[in-house]
Design a protein that fits this description.
Blueprint (H helix, E strand, L loop, with lengths): L2 E10 L9 E8 L2 E7 L6 E6 L10 E6 L12 H10 L2 E6 L11 H11 L6 E4 L1 E2 L8 H6 L5 E4 L13 H14 L3 E4 L3 H7 L7 H6 L3 H17 L17
Parallel strand pairs: 1-4, 5-6, 6-7, 8-9, 9-10
Antiparallel strand pairs: 1-2, 2-3
Helix pairs in contact: 4-7
C-alpha cells in the first residue's frame, strides 16, 4: 500500500479492547487512516513520524454545535478562524448550525452558498445541519438529499428574524417527514407560551437572565416534543433534560 504518512507511536488510544493505551503504527493514505497495526509491523511511507512516550495519540473530537456565521456575519465566526481553532484543540469535525449566516441554511440553494463560502478555508472536516422553519416544511426532502446531516428547529424565538420557531402542529409535521427520510430533528426546547409569560431579561446581569429561563421552561417544551414524537410514531427520543429523557 502506498502510504503518504506513517506514524509510529508508543501510546495510542484506539478504542481497542485491552489496555487503554497501545503501541501502534498508523498509516495514512489520501487523507484517511488506512492502517492501524502493531507499532513494529513492517510498513513504509513517504513520510515517517516517530513519536516519543511523552505524546499520546487520540481520536479527533467532534463538535456538533458550532455557529459558522459565514457568509453574512463572518466577523462573528468564519470558516477559517473556527476550523483553525478546532484543529489547534484536537477537534477534527465541526457541524454547523443552520442560523446566524445569511442566508440561513433552510434550502438546498442556501446550503450550496454555505459550501461555496467554505471552499479552500477549512482546516478540519465540516458538516451542516439544515433548518426547519414554518415556510420550508414542504421542502425538507431536497435539503436532506443535498447532504445536510440532520435538522434543527426552535419552539420559541431564536433571535433571528429569518429563523422563526415552529408551533406544535408544525413540529409534528416536521417529525413525520424526517421520520420517513431517516433523518433526525434537533429541537431547541423552550416553551414559547411560558417564555412570553415570563418576559425577556433586561440589563447585563447573568442572574437576571437565568431568572427568565427556569427549568420549567424546558420541561414544558420537552414534554411537548415527546407528545409530538409519539403522535408522529418516532421511535427514539433523547433529551438533555435528564428527568424527561425517553429512548424506545
Amino acid at each position: 500500500m502506498d502510504l503518504e504518512l506513517l506514524i509510529r507511536a508508543p501510546r495510542v488510544v484506539s478504542g481497542e479492547r485491552g489496555e487503554p493505551e497501545q503501541a501502534r503504527a498508523i498509516g495514512v493514505r489520501d487523507g484517511r487512516i488506512e492502517v492501524l497495526q502493531p507499532v513494529d509491523s513492517p510498513a513504509t511511507a513517504r513520510t515517517v513520524l516517530e513519536l516519543g512516550s511523552d505524546v499520546v495519540v487520540l481520536p479527533g473530537l467532534i463538535d456538533p454545535h458550532v455557529h459558522l456565521c459565514e457568509p453574512g456575519n463572518t466577523e462573528w465566526e468564519g470558516f477559517a478562524t473556527a476550523t483553525r481553532a478546532a484543529a489547534a484543540g484536537g477537534v477534527t469535525t465541526l457541524v454547523d448550525m443552520p442560523l446566524d449566516s445569511v442566508p440561513a441554511t433552510v434550502t438546498a440553494q442556501a446550503l450550496a452558498i454555505k459550501r461555496s463560502a467554505a471552499g479552500g478555508q477549512c482546516h478540519v472536516d465540516v458538516g451542516f445541519w439544515g433548518g426547519v422553519i414554518p415556510s420550508n416544511l414542504g421542502s425538507l426532502e431536497p435539503l436532506h438529499e443535498a447532504g445536510v446531516l440532520g435538522f434543527k428547529c426552535f419552539l420559541a424565538n431564536s433571535g433571528s428574524e429569518d429563523f422563526p420557531p415552529l408551533n406544535a402542529r408544525q413540529m409534528h409535521d416536521a417529525l413525520a417527514t424526517l421520520r420517513d427520510l431517516g433523518s433526525v430533528l434537533l429541537v431547541h426546547a423552550e416553551s414559547a407560551e411560558a417564555m412570553a409569560a415570563i418576559g425577556e431579561a433586561h440589563g447585563p446581569s447573568y442572574a437576571g437572565y437565568l431568572a427568565t429561563r427556569p427549568r420549567g421552561l424546558e420541561n414544558l417544551a420537552v414534554a411537548e416534543v415527546i407528545e409530538a414524537a409519539e403522535r408522529a410514531a418516532v421511535t427514539r427520543i433523547s433529551s438533555t433534560c435528564p428527568a424527561l429523557t425517553r429512548c424506545r
